């Protein structure tokens, strides 16, 4: 699985993870919009507790948002890397189509980030990514949910993102019209 595909999947989604409203006395309630990644995108953090994350995502913009089958998706992202990320970092990736799990794998982060013109080590400091991805017009209609939980070689948490996108029958219908 290419990182750009993972980034695309993440960038094309809205969180399907509901927050648990039953909290212990020591836990504070978190509004759902507090999980939203800043910018024009449907991305959300998996968890409200991001204090130990190695990456702070400042903004992600998608164009078009929401993504559409048969178009070029432009992804612009910026953030801050708090610690250098070394070879051996990995991402636990899960992709579902409705309730059907399509992918459940662990991928080498450093191998996959080459698809967005980055190399390991990823040095501490500000980072920006701009990527264009051609979305196939043959995307079957339905709901796609992605979760990417990212770790360093030493199992330190980098970040976790989730996203869901619904491609409508309109996308699939246009495919049939082209046949």
UniProtKB/TrEMBL annotation:
<keyword id="KW-0813">Transport</keyword>
<keyword id="KW-0732">Signal</keyword>
<dbReference type="Pfam" id="PF02221">
    <property type="entry name" value="E1_DerP2_DerF2"/>
</dbReference>
<comment type="function">
    <text>Catalyzes the intermembrane transfer of phosphatidylglycerol and phosphatidylinositol.</text>
</comment>
<protein>
    <recommendedName>
        <fullName>Phosphatidylglycerol/phosphatidylinositol transfer protein</fullName>
    </recommendedName>
</protein>
<comment type="subunit">
    <text>Monomer.</text>
</comment>
<dbReference type="InterPro" id="IPR014756">
    <property type="entry name" value="Ig_E-set"/>
</dbReference>
<feature type="domain" description="MD-2-related lipid-recognition">
    <location>
        <begin position="43"/>
        <end position="165"/>
    </location>
</feature>
<dbReference type="InterPro" id="IPR033917">
    <property type="entry name" value="ML_PG-PI_TP"/>
</dbReference>
<dbReference type="InterPro" id="IPR039670">
    <property type="entry name" value="NPC2-like"/>
</dbReference>
<comment type="similarity">
    <text>Belongs to the NPC2 family.</text>
</comment>
<keyword id="KW-0445">Lipid transport</keyword>
<dbReference type="InterPro" id="IPR003172">
    <property type="entry name" value="ML_dom"/>
</dbReference>
<feature type="signal peptide">
    <location>
        <begin position="1"/>
        <end position="16"/>
    </location>
</feature>
């Amino acid at each position: 699985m290419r990182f750009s595909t993972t980034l695309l999947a993440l960038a094309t989604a809205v969180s399907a993870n509901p927050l648990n409203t039953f909290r212990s006395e020591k836990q504070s309630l978190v509004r759902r919009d507090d999980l939203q990644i800043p910018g024009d995108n449907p991305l959300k953090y998996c968890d409200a507790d991001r204090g130990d994350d190695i990456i702070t995502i400042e903004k992600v913009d998608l164009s078009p948002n929401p993504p559409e089958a048969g178009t070029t998706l432009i992804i612009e992202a910026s953030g801050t890397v708090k610690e250098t990320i070394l070879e051996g970092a990995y991402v636990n990736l899960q992709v579902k189509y409705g309730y059907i799990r399509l992918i459940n794998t662990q991928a080498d982060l450093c191998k996959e980030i080459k698809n967005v013109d980055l190399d390991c080590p990823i040095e501490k400091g500000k980072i920006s990514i701009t990527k264009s991805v051609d979305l196939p017009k043959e995307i079957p209609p339905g709901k796609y949910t992605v979760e990417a939980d990212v770790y360093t070689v030493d199992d330190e948490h980098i970040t976790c993102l989730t996203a869901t996108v619904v491609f409508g029958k309109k996308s699939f219908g246009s495919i049939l019209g082209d046949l």
